[in-house]
Automatic annotation (TrEMBL):
Stated family: Belongs to the short-chain dehydrogenases/reductases (SDR) family.
Protein's name in the database: SDR family oxidoreductase
Listed Pfam families: adh_short
Gene3D superfamilies linked to this entry: NAD(P)-binding Rossmann-like Domain
Oxidoreductase in keyword set: yes
Segments passing through the bilayer: none
Domain of life: Bacteria
Keyword check for Plastid: no
Keywords, sorted A to Z: Oxidoreductase
Molecular function GO terms recorded: oxidoreductase activity, acting on the CH-OH group of donors, NAD or NADP as acceptor
Matching InterPro entries: NAD(P)-bd_dom_sf, SDR_fam
Amino acid sequence: MLSLQNQIVLITGASSGIGASCAKIFAQAGAKLILAARRFERLEELADRLGKEFSASIHLLQLDVCDRTQVESSLQSLPEPWSNIDILINNAGLSRGLNKLQEGSFQDWEEMIDTNIKGLLYVTRYVVPGMIDRGKGHVVNIGSIAAYQTYPGGNVYCGSKAAVRAISEGLKQDLLGTPVRVTCVDPGLVETEFSEVRFHGDTERAKKVYQGLTPLTPDDVADVVFFCATRPSHVNISQVLLVPTDQATTTLVHRRN
């Protein structure tokens, strides 16, 4: 198992859900964390918890990955001890709406494409060249089962996650001959703020998504990310599709009530 002691790990979308769970498991392993998200107060709370629990070394970035100028300035002005990123976890992402395409919201589309595709590209573009120069690094993209199977109303979201899968495969090919690894982790139903964001804060509607079944937890996904990151350096786990036992496809789930 590869040691993560003092490895610098950048996690986007770290303020909640899978990102926060990744922060916890990597902090526990002795990694140094750069936590990036738009909600800075949430980051401060998380950093405080991890500092007390694991004496973790943490640098915070208030960052909107959709803003290329902000991504560039934030990453290029990292303090010297934090500038050599070993592991990048591209976790920032969201879904908006569940409308038929012909009834879709342009604003929802823009937000999903800007965050899920362009944001991931911006951060990767500014981090990977340094990994190549230093001769080590690992990019972990958090995708979705939606990359494999579309579902009614999922049109643009599914398209954006199919793009993440294709970009991950393309990056792996482009990095062939370098020691930099690329992994795409694609979860099914995970109980996070995902559905609440999708339904624009409608918590009752969001709860129904997970009703009667046992979904994955953010910790379950973080555990898989951690496993991928700690394999020996000659091992690259390219793709992982993980779903709850109660889920077979994007639309086929078992509910007990």
